Amino acid sequence: VQKTSAETILIQRLSLVCKLQDCVDGALEALLESGHFSSEERDEVLLPVHTPSQQARRLLDHVGSKGESAASALLQFIQRRQESGSQQNQRGLEIPKELVRYQKKLSSSVSAQSCFLSTYGGTSHVSLDDVFTEVQLELHHSSSGVHQPLGLED
Description:
By secondary structure, the protein is mainly alpha-helical. It has a domain at 5-95: Death Domain, Fas (Orthogonal Bundle). It contains seven helices and four strands. It has helices at residues 5-11, 13-20, 24-33, 39-45, 52-66, 68-91, 97-115; strands spanning 116-118, 125-127, 137-139, 148-150. The strands form two sheets. The protein has a two-stranded antiparallel ribbon. A two-stranded antiparallel ribbon has the order 3-4. Strand 3 and strand 4 form a beta hairpin. It comes from Nothobranchius pienaari. Residues 1-79 form the CARD domain.
């Protein structure tokens, strides 16, 4: 019995997450170019607060809700990537997957930590660009006893 692409995505979800976590960006670009995803959906999957494997799971969830055509496009992307990967293996130019996965996870983590402020329970995230505090510093001069405000320019 021939399985549909949507069924294949459900059945092989675990292995697809492993295959996709190193190439979520490329898969999203392919789906965007083919008209299956909007740029807003791409940005939603690529939120920096998610690890690469979480991004891969979110991608699969979105593709599953889009139907057979999107599922087929994603599976074709994965197949093309595997074929080009096997050609690279023959040339001996491959970077170890563990290193690539570690670099991507570290980059995602640092990016998330440097862009967002999370609440204690992790229930909400605030962009650090939206957080601003006004600060005034005072210098203590023991001889004069006068406190003068110190601005950022000083």
